[in-house]
């Protein structure tokens, strides 16, 4: 473990040491492990740990674009503050490593295009639960239902630069770390529908647990079992 016993008891943690990254991401490729660990660290505002995960992943072949996309989409699941702070750390790390990275100009905002794209991806992720989910969210808030499809799936999660399977694993890591059980269930299921193996979903949960401790509210391993029941 990366936490000393007395610190674990009072809920504090030591920063992740670069040398223990291999242990933390056991069960996943360095590329996937470093990516999901970085996302969880960012969601928890552990900027030093995010920096460690970024440097480790970049040295093990994670393309900067993958990190950029994973941290950009945080605004959907951890809020704008998390995304802004994470991208600031990302920029500092790639500048320090003298890595050349630039982004394409922002895509023109076309709500109709985003809606069509979002409905297609959202249906692929939710499959047989899609219609029921849309009815439930629409019943809670028609605005949020529209934003979920247009902003979430159409504008953000449909972007090139990171596969939907990788995006779903990043989301799983963030939700396990921050404790949103119902959403965790949906996105483990979404990862599987995107072609991700159960073993990869489980590995992500173990990575988050070893690094930061899964939020008790997530009941992550029970949730995983529920998805595959």
Low-confidence stretches: 1-11
Number of helices: 14
> What fold name stands as the CATH topology?
AhpD-like
Share of helix, binned? 55-70%
Outline the structure in words.
The protein has one domain: AhpD-like (Up-down Bundle). It contains 14 helices and no strands. It is globular. It starts with a helix and ends with a helix. The N terminus is likely disordered.
Brief write-up:
With 229 residues, the chain is an all-alpha fold. It has helices spanning 5-9, 21-24, 30-43, 47-59, 64-72, 74-77, 80-96, 111-126, 130-140, 142-156, 164-178, 181-193, 198-211, 220-227.
Please give a handful of descriptors for the protein shown.
about 230 residues, mainly alpha, about 70% helix, AhpD-like
Topology, please?
Layout (H helix, E strand, L loop, with lengths): L4 H5 L11 H4 L5 H14 L3 H13 L4 H9 L1 H4 L2 H17 L14 H16 L3 H11 L1 H15 L7 H15 L2 H13 L4 H14 L8 H8 L2
Helix pairs in contact: 3-4, 3-5, 3-11, 3-13, 4-7, 5-7, 8-10, 9-10, 11-12, 11-13, 12-14
């Amino acid at each position: 473990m990366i936490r000393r016993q007395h610190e674990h008891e009072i809920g504090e943690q030591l920063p992740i040491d670069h040398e223990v990254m291999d242990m933390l991401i056991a069960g996943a490729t360095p590329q996937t492990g470093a990516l999901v660990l970085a996302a969880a660290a960012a969601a928890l505002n552990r900027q030093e740990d995010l920096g460690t995960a970024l440097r480790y992943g970049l040295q093990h072949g994670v393309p900067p674009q993958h990190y950029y996309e994973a941290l950009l989409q945080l605004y959907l699941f951890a809020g704008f503050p998390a995304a802004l702070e994470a991208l600031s750390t990302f920029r500092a790390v790639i500048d320090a490593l003298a890595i050349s990275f630039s982004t394409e100009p922002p895509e023109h905002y076309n709500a109709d295009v985003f809606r069509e794209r979002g409905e297609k991806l959202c249906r692929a992720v939710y499959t047989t639960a899609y219609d029921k989910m849309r009815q439930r969210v629409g019943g809670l808030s028609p605005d949020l239902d529209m934003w979920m499809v247009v902003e979430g799936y159409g504008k953000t999660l449909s972007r090139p630069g990171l596969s939907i399977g990788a995006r779903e694993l990043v989301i799983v890591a963030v939700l396990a770390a921050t404790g949103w059980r119902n959403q965790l269930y949906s996105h483990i299921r979404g990862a599987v529908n995107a072609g991700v193996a159960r073993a990869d979903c489980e590995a992500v949960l173990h990575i988050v647990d070893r690094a930061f401790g899964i939020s008790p509210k997530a009941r992550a391993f029970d949730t995983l079992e529920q998805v595959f029941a």
